[in-house]
Amino acid sequence: MTAAETGPARAVRVEATVKAPISEVWRVWTTSHGAEEFFAEKANIRLAIGGPYEIQFDPKDERSGTKGLKILSYAPEEMISFQWNAPPEMPEVRNGGTWVVVQMRPEGTDRTHVTVTHLGWKEGLEWDRAYVHFTRGWGDLMKRLERRFTDGPIDWNKERMMYQESRERKS
What we know:
31% of the residues lie in helices and 27% in strands. It has 171 residues and is an alpha+beta fold. The chain is globular and about 45 Å long.
Protein backbone atom coordinates (compact mmCIF):
# COMPACT_ATOMS: atom_id res chain seq x y z
CA MET A 1 0.00 0.00 0.00
CA THR A 2 1.27 3.46 -0.85
CA ALA A 3 -0.20 6.84 -0.10
CA ALA A 4 0.67 10.38 -1.11
CA GLU A 5 -0.02 12.06 2.23
CA THR A 6 -0.60 15.72 1.29
CA GLY A 7 -1.05 18.13 -1.58
CA PRO A 8 -2.83 17.79 -4.91
CA ALA A 9 -1.34 14.32 -5.51
CA ARG A 10 -2.84 13.01 -2.26
CA ALA A 11 -4.34 9.59 -2.94
CA VAL A 12 -5.07 6.32 -1.18
CA ARG A 13 -3.68 3.50 -3.32
CA VAL A 14 -3.86 -0.23 -2.61
CA GLU A 15 -2.75 -3.09 -4.84
CA ALA A 16 -3.08 -6.85 -4.83
CA THR A 17 -2.69 -9.77 -7.20
CA VAL A 18 -5.66 -12.12 -6.98
CA LYS A 19 -5.92 -15.73 -8.08
CA ALA A 20 -8.56 -15.25 -10.77
CA PRO A 21 -8.70 -14.51 -14.48
CA ILE A 22 -9.32 -10.89 -15.42
CA SER A 23 -12.85 -11.69 -16.68
CA GLU A 24 -13.89 -12.80 -13.17
CA VAL A 25 -12.21 -9.83 -11.47
CA TRP A 26 -13.95 -7.50 -13.91
CA ARG A 27 -17.30 -9.18 -13.16
CA VAL A 28 -17.06 -8.70 -9.39
CA TRP A 29 -16.22 -4.99 -9.75
CA THR A 30 -18.84 -4.20 -12.42
CA THR A 31 -22.00 -6.14 -11.56
CA SER A 32 -24.33 -5.96 -8.58
CA HIS A 33 -24.13 -9.69 -7.94
CA GLY A 34 -20.35 -9.67 -8.25
CA ALA A 35 -19.89 -6.76 -5.82
CA GLU A 36 -22.12 -8.56 -3.30
CA GLU A 37 -19.55 -11.38 -3.32
CA PHE A 38 -16.80 -9.18 -1.78
CA PHE A 39 -17.62 -5.45 -1.51
CA ALA A 40 -20.77 -5.33 0.64
CA GLU A 41 -24.00 -7.18 1.29
CA LYS A 42 -26.03 -5.10 -1.20
CA ALA A 43 -25.03 -3.38 -4.44
CA ASN A 44 -26.71 -1.68 -7.39
CA ILE A 45 -24.33 -1.39 -10.34
CA ARG A 46 -25.28 -0.83 -13.96
CA LEU A 47 -22.22 -0.75 -16.20
CA ALA A 48 -22.74 2.43 -18.24
CA ILE A 49 -21.30 5.92 -18.12
CA GLY A 50 -23.55 7.64 -15.58
CA GLY A 51 -24.96 4.29 -14.43
CA PRO A 52 -25.34 3.69 -10.69
CA TYR A 53 -22.40 2.49 -8.60
CA GLU A 54 -24.21 2.06 -5.31
CA ILE A 55 -22.73 -0.02 -2.48
CA GLN A 56 -24.87 -0.52 0.63
CA PHE A 57 -22.59 -1.37 3.54
CA ASP A 58 -25.30 -1.60 6.21
CA PRO A 59 -28.54 -3.00 4.73
CA LYS A 60 -30.48 -1.44 7.63
CA ASP A 61 -29.13 2.11 7.11
CA GLU A 62 -29.27 3.61 3.63
CA ARG A 63 -27.01 6.47 4.80
CA SER A 64 -24.11 4.00 5.13
CA GLY A 65 -23.87 3.55 1.40
CA THR A 66 -23.17 5.30 -1.86
CA LYS A 67 -26.76 5.80 -3.06
CA GLY A 68 -26.89 8.18 -6.01
CA LEU A 69 -23.24 7.83 -6.99
CA LYS A 70 -22.37 7.11 -10.60
CA ILE A 71 -19.88 5.39 -12.88
CA LEU A 72 -17.56 7.99 -14.42
CA SER A 73 -15.71 5.88 -17.01
CA TYR A 74 -14.64 2.37 -17.90
CA ALA A 75 -12.60 0.33 -20.34
CA PRO A 76 -13.72 -3.32 -20.34
CA GLU A 77 -11.42 -5.61 -18.36
CA GLU A 78 -8.97 -2.73 -17.80
CA MET A 79 -10.47 -0.04 -15.55
CA ILE A 80 -13.58 1.44 -14.00
CA SER A 81 -13.91 4.76 -12.20
CA PHE A 82 -16.80 5.88 -10.03
CA GLN A 83 -17.82 8.63 -7.65
CA TRP A 84 -17.27 7.99 -3.95
CA ASN A 85 -18.36 9.47 -0.66
CA ALA A 86 -17.65 8.94 3.04
CA PRO A 87 -19.57 7.83 6.14
CA PRO A 88 -22.38 10.18 7.29
CA GLU A 89 -20.30 11.28 10.29
CA MET A 90 -17.89 12.96 7.82
CA PRO A 91 -20.33 15.28 5.95
CA GLU A 92 -17.69 17.54 4.38
CA VAL A 93 -15.95 14.56 2.77
CA ARG A 94 -19.22 12.74 2.06
CA ASN A 95 -20.24 15.64 -0.18
CA GLY A 96 -16.69 16.49 -1.25
CA GLY A 97 -16.52 14.89 -4.68
CA THR A 98 -13.92 12.15 -4.35
CA TRP A 99 -13.67 9.33 -6.87
CA VAL A 100 -12.12 5.89 -7.22
CA VAL A 101 -10.22 4.34 -10.12
CA VAL A 102 -9.89 0.54 -10.23
CA GLN A 103 -7.29 -0.71 -12.70
CA MET A 104 -6.63 -4.34 -13.53
CA ARG A 105 -4.21 -6.24 -15.71
CA PRO A 106 -3.76 -9.96 -16.29
CA GLU A 107 -0.74 -11.72 -14.87
CA GLY A 108 -0.77 -14.94 -16.83
CA THR A 109 -4.07 -16.69 -17.47
CA ASP A 110 -5.28 -17.19 -13.89
CA ARG A 111 -4.07 -14.16 -11.92
CA THR A 112 -5.00 -10.46 -12.06
CA HIS A 113 -3.21 -7.46 -10.58
CA VAL A 114 -5.67 -4.89 -9.19
CA THR A 115 -4.89 -1.31 -8.19
CA VAL A 116 -7.49 0.83 -6.38
CA THR A 117 -6.77 4.57 -6.22
CA HIS A 118 -9.03 6.95 -4.26
CA LEU A 119 -8.59 10.53 -5.50
CA GLY A 120 -10.01 14.03 -5.05
CA TRP A 121 -8.73 14.71 -1.54
CA LYS A 122 -8.85 18.17 0.01
CA GLU A 123 -7.18 19.61 3.12
CA GLY A 124 -8.59 19.82 6.65
CA LEU A 125 -9.09 17.78 9.83
CA GLU A 126 -12.14 15.88 8.60
CA TRP A 127 -10.33 15.11 5.33
CA ASP A 128 -7.35 13.80 7.32
CA ARG A 129 -9.67 11.56 9.39
CA ALA A 130 -11.34 10.27 6.22
CA TYR A 131 -7.97 9.61 4.64
CA VAL A 132 -7.00 7.35 7.55
CA HIS A 133 -10.44 5.69 7.41
CA PHE A 134 -10.11 4.88 3.70
CA THR A 135 -6.49 3.78 3.93
CA ARG A 136 -7.78 1.04 6.21
CA GLY A 137 -11.07 0.55 4.36
CA TRP A 138 -9.60 0.01 0.89
CA GLY A 139 -6.94 -2.26 2.38
CA ASP A 140 -9.68 -4.33 4.04
CA LEU A 141 -11.59 -4.45 0.75
CA MET A 142 -8.58 -5.78 -1.13
CA LYS A 143 -8.17 -8.53 1.46
CA ARG A 144 -11.84 -9.48 0.94
CA LEU A 145 -11.29 -9.46 -2.83
CA GLU A 146 -8.37 -11.89 -2.43
CA ARG A 147 -10.45 -14.08 -0.08
CA ARG A 148 -13.35 -14.04 -2.54
CA PHE A 149 -11.14 -15.87 -5.05
CA THR A 150 -9.52 -18.26 -2.58
CA ASP A 151 -12.47 -19.11 -0.28
CA GLY A 152 -15.56 -18.15 -2.32
CA PRO A 153 -18.08 -15.32 -1.82
CA ILE A 154 -17.95 -13.51 1.53
CA ASP A 155 -20.44 -14.75 4.13
CA TRP A 156 -21.94 -11.44 5.30
CA ASN A 157 -23.35 -13.08 8.44
CA LYS A 158 -19.78 -13.69 9.63
CA GLU A 159 -17.92 -10.69 8.19
CA ARG A 160 -17.10 -7.71 10.45
CA MET A 161 -17.35 -4.40 8.65
CA MET A 162 -15.92 -1.02 9.69
CA TYR A 163 -19.38 0.55 10.14
CA GLN A 164 -20.18 -2.10 12.79
CA GLU A 165 -17.04 -1.25 14.74
CA SER A 166 -17.77 2.50 14.75
CA ARG A 167 -21.36 1.85 15.88
CA GLU A 168 -20.08 -0.37 18.74
CA ARG A 169 -17.61 2.35 19.89
CA LYS A 170 -20.53 4.81 20.14
CA SER A 171 -22.66 2.47 22.31
